[in-house]
Design brief:
single chain; about 250 residues; alpha/beta; TIM Barrel; eight-stranded parallel β-barrel; 10 helices; 8 strands; about 40% helix; binds 1,3-dihydroxyacetonephosphate; Aldolase_TIM; glycolysis; cytoplasm; Triosephosphate isomerase; gluconeogenesis
């Protein structure tokens, strides 16, 4: 099974989200051996869920609060997304870390909140350009993984990891498929050897488009892709789905 996850970020209005979802489902809702999941904005989530009913597509939250209920103005809990039909939730996306200053300890709490709510968290990790140049790639990834998973009883949990190098997100300069394969191979080895967990799907994200998607999904260690910008445009995302389906 391979996975194509679409992170719509804050690219679309409510109406645009509904139109895009309807068009995509009409164009291509059934695919073999691939799971498509859409991560719409919180505000359009419920309407997108109604449109997705009866299809094979899944839905996820772009972000969740780390508590279930209470005086947390503006926050949306994992429980609430679960109640509305989410299967997944992104945790620790690079934009949450760099724009909203989320720390590894926040990702740890959000992973717990997802597990408690019955959501499958997709832990997003990735090194910056500075980390890369300083030879700190593995160091950064290892800390992001270990600190998010700490105390979370992970051998009994389902979760994904999305490797999204910060320098590749939205830059048009993607990590090469062979480099992504090597580092994702290393991530899987680390999960197994240091943390005792096997079979965690690991996705690649960062400037994925219709011309390069198959180069990632064809790799042995890469279980799928997390697409940002190109997933919020009908022509580009349907070309990604077609490229994948035709491969
Ligand atoms: P882009 O595909 O726009 O580079 O974004 C990747 C991403 O952040 C997905 O979560």
């Amino acid at each position: 099974m391979k996975y194509i996850f679409a992170n719509w970020k804050m690219y679309l209005s409510f109406d645009e989200s509904c139109i895009l979802m309807s068009q995509l489902l009409q164009e291509k809702s059934e695919m073999q051996n691939v799971e498509v999941a859409i991560f719409p904005s919180s505000i359009s989530f419920s309407e997108i869920e109604k449109l997705a009913r009866g299809s094979q597509w899944s839905l996820g939250a772009q972000n969740v609060a780390w508590v279930e209920k209470g005086a947390y103005t503006g926050a949306v809990s994992a429980q609430l997304f679960s109640e509305l039909g989410a299967k997944y939730a992104l945790v620790g996306h690079s934009e949450r870390r760099h724009i909203f200053h989320e720390k590894n300890e926040d990702t740890q709490k959000k992973m717990s909140a997802c597990f408690e709510a019955g959501l499958i968290p997709v832990l997003c990790i990735g090194e910056t350009q500075e980390d890369l140049e300083a030879g700190k790639r593995q160091y950064r990834l290892q800390r992001q993984i270990d600190e998010a998973l700490m105390g979370n009883n992970i051998s009994e949990r389902s979760f994904f990891i999305a490797y999204e190098p910060v320098w590749a997100i939205g830059s048009g300069s993607a990590c090469t498929a062979s480099d992504a394969e090597d580092i994702i191979g290393w991530i899987k080895l680390h999960l197994k050897d240091a943390l005792g967990v096997d079979n965690v799907p690991v996705l690649y994200g960062g400037s994925v488009d219709a011309t390069n998607v198959v180069s990632y999904t064809a790799q042995a260690s890469i279980d799928g892709v997390l697409v940002g910008g190109c997933s919020a445009k009908f022509d580009e995302f349907s070309s990604i789905l077609k490229a994948f389906d035709g491969a």
